[in-house]
Q: What sequence folds into this?
């Protein structure tokens, strides 16, 4: 009988970056199974004899190590606050086999790919940008990234490098809801779909023939953006049926 590997493998913190008071990134060395960009795995700590675990999307590309994760520190969260206090060399548990179907393999090829995210829900999209295969399947990629304050925009260096490398094939459209800032859309993603602001700012109209949408983040945004897109005639992909919209609520 073949030996069954345990669910968990021990990981080591290779680095931690505090981006704002509540946002941070962890780099973790861990022996995990191969994964696709957009998938997630669980992280865990043992606290008072109990293993506390939470799933998180992997932000690093599948071909890169260490693994990278992006977090918002929940004030009442059992795990995220403890993860934010880790230091280089600390140990934690990592689920050995990543999971999830929020991947480009589930998305039909088309002319334009719209990646709509709020907060740390941008993580799977950054993994896809780092992995790179989306450029073989889409002529144009739009990253739409919504936060409350401009300082909450993370990985700006990666986004700007992508824009510099791919030029007009890539557009970055930041949304900021609680302050007005030049170069950002003030408001929320779902309303911008309904009133045409998103298409206008991007300079590209949606198309029922060749636009694909991936939604990730706050469940309220995901559901409201889904409803707004459905009002425009776009359909949600489901098991065995390809539509225009693939989504993942992030908590």
A:
């Amino acid at each position: 009988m073949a030996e069954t590997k345990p669910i968990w493998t021990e990981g080591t913190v290779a680095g931690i970056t505090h981006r704002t008071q509540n946002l941070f990134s962890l780099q973790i060395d861990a022996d995990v199974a191969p994964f696709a960009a957009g998938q997630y795995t669980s992280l865990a700590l043992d606290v008072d004899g109990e293993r506390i675990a939470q799933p998180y999307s992997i932000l690093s590309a599948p071909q890169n190590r260490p693994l990278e994760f992006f977090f918002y520190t929940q004030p009442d969260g059992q795990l995220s606050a403890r993860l934010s206090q880790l230091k280089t060399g600390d140990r934690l548990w990592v689920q050995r086999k990543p999971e999830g179907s929020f991947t480009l393999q589930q998305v039909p090829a088309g002319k334009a790919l719209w990646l709509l995210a709020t907060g740390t829900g941008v993580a799977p999209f950054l993994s896809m940008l780092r992995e790179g295969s989306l450029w073989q399947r889409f002529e144009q990629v739009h990253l739409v990234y919504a936060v409350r304050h401009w300082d909450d925009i993370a990985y700006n260096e990666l986004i700007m490098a992508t824009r510099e490398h791919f030029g007009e094939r890539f557009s970055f459209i930041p949304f900021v809801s609680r302050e007005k800032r030049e170069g950002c859309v003030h408001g929320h993603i779902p309303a911008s779909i309904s009133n045409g602001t998103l298409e206008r700012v991007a300079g590209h109209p949606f198309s029922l023939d060749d636009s694909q949408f991936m939604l990730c983040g706050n469940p309220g945004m995901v559901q409201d953006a889904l409803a707004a897109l459905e009002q425009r005639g776009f359909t949600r992909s489901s098991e065995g049926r390809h539509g225009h919209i693939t989504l993942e609520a992030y908590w």
